[in-house]
TrEMBL record:
Cofactor(s) recorded in Swiss-Prot or TrEMBL: FAD
Domain FAD dependent oxidoreductase, residue spans: 5-348
Protein name: FAD-dependent oxidoreductase
Alphabetically ordered keywords of this record: FAD, Flavoprotein, Oxidoreductase
InterPro entries (UniProt xref): FAD-dep_OxRdtase (IPR006076), FAD/NAD-bd_sf (IPR036188), MTOX (IPR045170)
Keyword Calcium applies: no
Amino acid sequence: MSRHIVVVGGGAMGSSAAWHLAARGERVTLFEQFTPGHDRGSSHGSSRIFRLAYPDPFYVTLAVRALPLWRRLEEETGRHLLDLTGAVDHGPAEATTALHDALTAAGRPSHFLTPTQVAERWPGLRADTGALFHPEAGRLHADEAVAAFQQAAWQHGARIRHGVKVTRLAVRGERAEVVTDGEEAVIADAVVVAAGSWTPGRLSGLVTGLPPMRITQEQPVHFPAPDALGWPSFIHHGGAGLPPGAGVYGLGSNDGVKAGFHGVGPVVDPDHRDRRVDDRAVVRLQEYAARWLPGVDHTAPVATTCLYTTTPDQDFVIDRQGPLTVLAGFSGHGFKFASVVGLLAADLIGGAPGPGRFALGPPRAH
Ligand SMILES: Cc1cc2nc3c(=O)[nH]c(=O)nc-3n(C[C@H](O)[C@H](O)[C@H](O)COP(=O)(O)OP(=O)(O)OC[C@H]3O[C@@H](n4cnc5c(N)ncnc54)[C@H](O)[C@@H]3O)c2cc1C
């Protein structure tokens, strides 16, 4: 007999969990506090980088698992979500070599390019001392992907309820009680908490071993560019040509070429932030673009804000304690994995162990 599973949060992770659980025949209700396509969490906008390349083989393997699931989601929903435009990583040799080694060990292609070769192939992008090209990377359409997860979940019978906030969660023996702002109370066989930056507050006192999470407001910008959709995604690793500690990511999208610093924004409360754009940070990205992105119009940036929920080691939390399954701490690099994160949640609820690396518990060492 199917169980009733409640999912709290309709961002990328909760929506993916709803899809996988409903596809396995569970009765699923997803509660999302805001309207469809809202821009107050972490999953909105027209683009996210997809890539297999990580220096750590664990994440390469996870991204390899995510790729066919994105394609399955496209097939189930008829939506176009993922463009493999390739990616260029550039900067210090130790950064690009570590990526090349991890991809090669996994049997995945990549090759080095000189800055001149990069300029010949992508005149809009100027590369630092050395570059690595890897073709199995590119652009996910973020808004479309979240809508697709929810559409697929709905096609499998899930109820997707927007504008409903979960105000109380309580463990009742092997089950959990979920209360909404409409004073609706539901007893669920299991609850998936995928509340993004709201997760630490929502889970307070309910699970043990949740690592501390830093909530920051990040601020990428889009620059106009004539051929934005043809761009590879890119990461300019801190070092050679950048100030110490700085790193820049970017990619082409429907809104132009996006570029941002990774995880440098101010700490905020997700319920009380003014979402005001920091003009000094925009200027720093304009200065970056003037030097390294000759193909964009660096004089016309459009900034947007978004939340990171970052753990001390930037590893995710994907684990179950009793009736509660936690999907959290995606540390500004989770979107590409969303298609497999929901599957891991469904596995946990089905009784299978999760990845030990992402377990709740004492500080993790690796
Ligand atoms: C600027 C930026 C750029 C990024 N770039 C990349 C990238 O290129 N590649 C990549 O892989 N990743 C990237 N990421 C990271 C990725 O987008 C996030 O890891 C991912 O979107 C997190 O999704 P989530 O579902 O955990 O959180 P969210 O999208 O925030 O979803 C959580 C949802 O829970 C809802 N909620 C919270 N509390 C309640 C409640 N009590 N009741 C009901 N609903 C509730 C919220 O309203 C929200 O919709 C980026 C993130 C940002 C901010």
